[in-house]
Amino acid sequence: MRYLMTALAFLIGMFLPLQVAINNALKTDIADSTLLAALVSFGVGTLTLLLFSVATGQPLQVLSSLPHLTWWKLAGGTFGALFVFSSIYLAPRIGFAAMASLIVTGQIVASLLMDRAGFLGVPVRDLTMVKLSGAVLLIAGMLLVNFGDRLFPRP
C-alpha cells in the first residue's frame, strides 16, 4: 500500500505543471486575467468536490459547523487560492521548471520543519541526516534549475 501511495503522490506532483499550463491557457480566454483564471479554476474544483461528496454520500449537513471553527482552520482555502493564483502569474514569467523547483524546495523545507515540530498535531518525525541531505540536494537542484545557466555558461 505504501508503494501505491508513493506512486500516487508522484503522479499528483506531475499534475502541477499540467494544471498551471491549463490555467494559463484559460487566462488567455478570459481577458488575460490571472485572478479570474484562478477564480474559474477554484470554481470548477469546488464543483468537482461537491459532486464527489454527493456521489460518495458525504454528510454535507456537518458543514453547518463551519461558522464555529477557529479562523485558522479555514486558512487552507486561502493558501490554496494564493497557490493557484501565484502559479498562473509566475509560470509564464519565470518558467515552469523554475517555478516548480522553487515550490517543491519550499514544500520540502517547510515539511521537514513541520514534521519535526509536530505542527498542528501531526505525528512528530525525526529530522535525520539522511532527510537533511535530501533537502540539501533538493536546494542544490533548485539552484541549478534557476541559476545553472549563469553559473555554468556554455562556451
pLDDT < 50 stretches:
none
Helix and strand string, N-terminal first? HHHHH
Helical/strand content category: mainly alpha
- How large is the share of residues in beta strands? under 5%
List the helices and strands and how they pair.
Elements: H1 2-29, H2 34-55, H3 75-94, H4 96-117, H5 129-151
Helix pairs in contact: 1-2, 1-3, 2-3, 3-4, 4-5
List the main descriptive attributes of the protein structure presented here.
2 domains; 155 residues; 74% helix; mainly alpha
Structure write-up:
The chain is mostly helical. The protein folds into two domains: 1-59 and 70-94, no CATH class; 96-150. The chain is 74% helix and 0% strand. The chain is globular and about 65 Å long. It starts with a helix and ends with a helix.
Brief rundown of the structure:
Helix content is 74%, strand content 0%. The chain is mostly helical and 155 residues long. It has two domains: 1-59 and 70-94, no CATH class; 96-150.
